[in-house]
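hey can u run this one w/ manganese (II) ion bound, need the structure tokens asap thx
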Amino acid sequence: MTPFVDMHCHLDLYPDPMAQIAKLAASRAYVLSVTTTPSAWTRTSQLADQLPRVQTSLGLHPQLARERRSELPLFDRLLNKTRYVGEVGLDGSTACKSFWADQIHVFEHVLHACSNAGGKVLSIHSRGAAREVLDYLEKFPDHGIAILHWFTGTPRQLARAIDLGCWFSVGPAMLASKNGHALASRMPPERVLTETDGPFAKEGKVPLQPAQCDRAVDALASLWRCGIENAKHSIVANFRMIASASERPSSLRDTYSRRLL
Ligand code: MN
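ok here u go:
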């Protein structure tokens, strides 16, 4: 059985994280366990100590930029412990615009640090701020591999993101919406991964669990006009591309420049 990929979930925020870990161990899933603060990273990565397929990314969520920007020195100290960074990004919603300067300060710091380190993979939040996120990715071209999680920009912004070499992680909630589905149909299949964003993303009132990435796989299989098992294989192949490319930072860029030629 092909394992599933959940490229963006918050394992530490489920009521019983160890129960989630036990399920992932049984399913042999590939998971990116994202964090929202640097101070959560060590404890969250310990949850998955025994599961090499579960990687824990170092994040500072834009919604917490004002409250937690004081943790940037800790972010810097932890950065060499993981190839994966996130959840980071910008949030242009009304509530978060009130501390926009803090968001910019944090995101610039993170991109600068990732550029210096090299070879990082970033899971990026861009709600209501697609243009600004893309501007900053362009400003720091050596940031690594950017995966735009639950992208909600315009088709034109999506095209720009594709040109910039971004990847995308899409989940059941995104694919269930008309706009999300339309955006996913324009994404290059070789740069798409699945995610749940659980437990924040819910189905009804119940938080999504990583295994529910299968809903996203179903939707992608019909978009790509292939069987479900084929779609699963493609997604795992995409994940492996990311996992191996991040060890060799320049290889993906080479792939893209070859494709452009
Ligand atoms: Mn999230």
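Residues 8, 10, 87, 197, 200 surround manganese (II) ion (CB under 6 Å). anyway lmk if its weird
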